[in-house]
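2.7 Reproducibility. Because tokenized structures are sensitive to small changes in the input, we list the exact sequence used for SDR family oxidoreductase, including any N-terminal residues retained from the expression construct. No trimming or masking was applied before prediction.
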Amino acid sequence: MNVTIITGGSDGIGAEMARQLAGKHRQGIALVLAGRSSEKLDAVAAQCRAHGAQVLCVAMDVADEAQCRALVDQAVAGFGRIDALVNNAGMSAQALFEEVKAEDLHWYEDLMRVNLWGAVWCTHAALPHLLESRGRIVAVSSLSGLIGVPGRTAYAATKFAMTGFFEALRAEVKLRGVSVTTAFPGVVTTNIRVRGYNAQGRPLGKSGLKEDDAMSVEECARLIVDGMERRQREVVMTAKGKLGRFLKLAGAGRGGRHGPGGAEGRGASALDHARKRSPLPWIVRFGPLVPAGGTVLDLACGRGRHLRWFAARGHPVVGVDRDAEALATLQGVGETVAADIENGPWPLAGRQFAAVVVTNYLWRPLFPRILESVAEGGLLLHETFAQGNETVGKPSRPDFLLAPGELLQAYPSLRILAYEDGFLPEPDRFVQRIAAVRERPSRTPNRYLL
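Resulting structure tokens (single pass, no recycling of outputs):
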């Protein structure tokens, strides 16, 4: 059973997410709804139970650390696990900074405790359980967490902080199987702005924003639920928000080393570039098993993200690719070999390596060559696209997709340390991957630290 905690679950977006999750998963979900109003929580819980969901209501205030930690404790005590945490609780504010008097400025800190620290405390308490379940974290931020606008200095500060915190956390926990989805709603038909702070730190009593084009709470909740279940990085909900996000990223890239016509100048996300430069998690996980000082071969290495990673750890490296321009960027990193390994002769005849790395590349006639290139005691790391990928993107041709178990059959003489065949998010793809060794004869079992 999936166990999901939703803060701010008594009203608005949180309550609607609970109803949609209950309607979708019915007996397959247990909801832990947190909010300040027991009466409102009970009303939402009744609606969810009508769909067959189990529900635990916890009256609490996320501005108090002890109550945040107690919420997680109650969820685990009630259901034994946590699969998702939705940090939805929040308050709004609308005031020009110059209109806030010194004696009232403390409410900026109060707002930060609700919008940022409440999410931080809940996430910190739930994280060990989410790591165990390879679960999902959702942070409901705001378009004000992407773009600052007049009258929203306090609110934007909390939401920018929230956005930055969860963006950094995403990078920390991704390799452990936990997804972090940050949602950026615009104006939504809830009462959050009516209850938000004015310049004196008292309830506004009305919305300070134009509500004509407000998104329905049902649509907003649906988009967040969908993003959470698909393990999306971000859910930016409005056309204006997406345009603002794009222009901001594009503007950040101007004047960079690529110039206006380069990748940054076209508004590509710096995070996307970082992902392309970073080694795959499979390589990071098993790379330390390569014998110290052993030479690593990377086939179809491209611009050498894995060569650089191994070279930085003291390994001599050899990169093979037919793209001479890409290989030129590896000058000083290690040995490079420009060769068409699909149509030309094998360029490494007679050579063996402490590790052979093949990623996002498949040419079946090379399986025997790859196998013979692994030295005694050496490691093979092979990850590429598998059947099913045609449903989410490219490559989609069957020739470029591995059949179930194909890598296991390709390297029969190696000892298999790990094998996986399945779906990975961010970006969505189907992969098959293997980590295997050519064992040396030994009187005692070899130990491979996993």
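The domain at 278-437 is CATH 3.40.50.150 (Rossmann fold).
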